[in-house]
Here is the input.
Amino acid sequence: MSNQKQRQSTFFGGAAILSLGVIITKIIGALYKIPLANVIGDGGYGYFTTAYNIYSLLLTVSTAGLPVALSKTVSEANTLGRYNQMYRTFRVALAFFFSLGLVSFLVMFALGPQITLAMGNPGALVAVRTLAPAVLFVCCMSAFRGFTQGQGQMAPTAISQIIEALCKLLLGLSLAWFFASQAYQASDLAGAAASLTGEELTAALQEHKEQLSAAGAIAGVTIGTFLGLVFLSSNRFLSDRTNPRVANDTPGPRRAILLNLIKIGIPITIGSSVVSIVTLVDNALILNRLQEALGMTYTQANDLYGTYCTAMALYNLPPSLMIPLTASVLPAVSACKARRDAPGASKIAGSALRMAMIVACPAGVGLCALSTPIMNLLYPGYDLSVTGPCMAVLGIASIFVCIMMLCNSTLQAYGYVNLPIGVMLIGGVVKLGVNYVLVGFEEINVFGASIGTLACFGVVAVLELIIIKRVIPSPPKFAKVFVKPVLASVLMGAGGWAVYQLLYRFLSNSALSSLTAPTQGEMDAALSHASNLAVIPAIAVAAVIYFALVVALGILSKEDLSLMPKGDKLAKLLRAK
Here is the structure.
């Protein structure tokens, strides 16, 4: 194998390790978030999501660009054998990340009341403060992750992610269930119960329960980030003891290293923060528009927003599968550029975008085609007239988010760190404008937020593809990247939908015919059960259809597969050309 193919195989090997970690993490996350939404209810899920959106913004500001800059800088130093420079860069980054994390923690904890009030959701305060320490822990983790990923070591990141996910599942879900199952008394409301009527007291106790159960769920996240940090720091210590590196290079001054990290990282942070800022403003906008334009109470608006967030949880799944590719693209391309290997850099960028579409398209189309039955299966206690249509639109939107993520990483790897910022600002304005208008219509309400998300990332993805075509040397051939995966995904979605419809009609007719003078509740339960029985085989058939089309259409070529670990054997098995 040539040096270029060896480097590309290493890139895909690292991406494969991270992908495995993400898949395991997302399976655990599904076991956490799906029952969580059913345990804490729509109100509790609204508090949970508000707290998490605030956390995500501060986390993005603190860690989005600098770990990428660290990974890029470490990769270049490691490639050139400048190990002293590499280690000093890590130490400088760790100290800086800790400082950022500490500031973010203090902002989230001390200013929690003001932030949640501005968000239109003051009931989320307990959850926000419970989550605040996690920002500090993740900031420190990001330094370790950037350092190891810059050296092509993806396993520590993957393991730490699994540790975090397991803590969320085991501790967060348990604590949420514990608080949700308690019978709270008027004395738990700190004296406020005396001024409340019977119905008001019942509502206040329910809100109190939802706040505590959301905070319990959040506690699992905080503990998980702490244990993930413990693992990464221990792994770093053992690695230095067992595999010391001898180097004679003279590292640069700490000030110059820090300034270089900031120079690379700040534009990336700004570009990444646009998404989190838009999400946070979107959160506040939806809650306030539901109350101001539609006349809903605070509780009604929060409950409806919590219902909408169940669809958002699934919408985030396909983009999360892109994280391994985006994390691997930048150091891999940077290493090629350090060796002046332009063809290798172009090959890696093109292959990463193609692999992203092979994964993102079927996931997004599947969520769209089977949106309502999937939401009925996973979130049976929620209003399907809201979650189903939202999921259908968000499924397509998730594909554009995946394209945007790979485009951002590619542009950043080639040094165009400022271009994604302007594009994301355009998308953010589009989203907020569409949301403000559509959410204010009673017949649309939160469904307008789904349309705004699709409009935002559709515009961003198209603009960034145009930019890549114009500024990147030897850009990917978009017809090769998009046409076959889109065609296979559409056929897969149609096949899965047809199978579902046939099975659902048969099962629902059988179930209804077995009932004698059924009530409306019994009929609804029978139809829901029939839908659940039909959707699982429909998903399985859709997966088989897509796999068959991937082989039949030659979506993965022999050259593509040869870049992956054990790819030559896989190419022979699939008879790829």
Remarks:
- Residues 291 and 297 are 6 Å apart (CA to CA).
- The chain has a mean pLDDT of 83.
- The two ends are 18 Å apart (CA to CA).
